[in-house]
Amino acid sequence: MRYTPAMKNFEFRRDRYEQFCRFENPLINIGLSLKLPDFRPFCKARQLPPFHFFLYCVLTSIETIDNFMYRIHEGEVIRIDDFYGSYTVLNDDKNLNFARFTMTRDLPEFIARSVAAGKVAKASRPLINTGADLTPRQMKDNIFITCLPWFDMTAIEHPIYSHKDADIPSLAWGRFSDPDGDRMRMPFSIQAHHGFVDGYHIHLLAETIAARVANVMTSAA
């Protein structure tokens, strides 16, 4: 296996990766109660859709943690540099569909692209953005996102074509809580390859998302 300079941090957990690669199911899946600043008043005052604002904070947090950027391609571990913005949508028939758009770190542009992609997916009766149009390497540039706003999610098991080959993180969250002062909670789940991600990295991502929400709100004040 070859390692590029961009993979130097991976060297320190190479043996962990090789250990978990022997497992038939190498995935770790943890659900937690995510504590956040209540961003809903902020979004309402600026006419920002809360889901898309939060999606922005999640995706721009993931890219700061190497462990969520590792993938397996042609038998080698790589680190992706970027990924698509994507999430699940209910179409007009109340069936699952997939929204996908090109990422940007500019918040207004991100929200515009995310909203537009969601409208396309919602209006489509056929299933779209399945990855059939992508090469195997391009498929690695993904983060799988789903939101279940109807209930207080306590656990989720994502459909996996082959557990042994599942290297793309899957994130899900449920219904936002009622406000608790200036804080809120939401049920949140993170699934990832245990060769790349430990419980600590899931904790780190949760903390990074909360900090990102706070920082975006502060910088826009």
Give a structural overview.
The chain has 221 residues and is α+β, with helices and mostly antiparallel strands. The chain has a single domain (27-195, 204-220), classed as Chloramphenicol acetyltransferase-like domain (Chloramphenicol Acetyltransferase), CATH 3.30.559. 32% of the residues lie in helices and 23% in strands. It is built from 6 helices and 8 strands, in the order H-E-H-H-E-E-E-E-H-H-E-E-E-H. The protein has helices spanning 14-20, 40-46, 50-62, 107-123, 136-139, 199-220, and strands spanning 27-37, 70-73, 76-79, 85-90, 96-101, 144-147, 170-173, 183-193. The strands form 3 sheets. A 4-stranded mixed beta sheet has the order 1-8-7-6, with helices on one face. The protein has a two-stranded antiparallel ribbon with strand order 2-3. A two-stranded antiparallel ribbon has the order 4-5. Strand 4 and strand 5 form a beta hairpin. Helix 3 packs across helix 6 (199-220). The protein is globular. The termini are far apart. The model has no long low-confidence stretch (mean pLDDT 95).
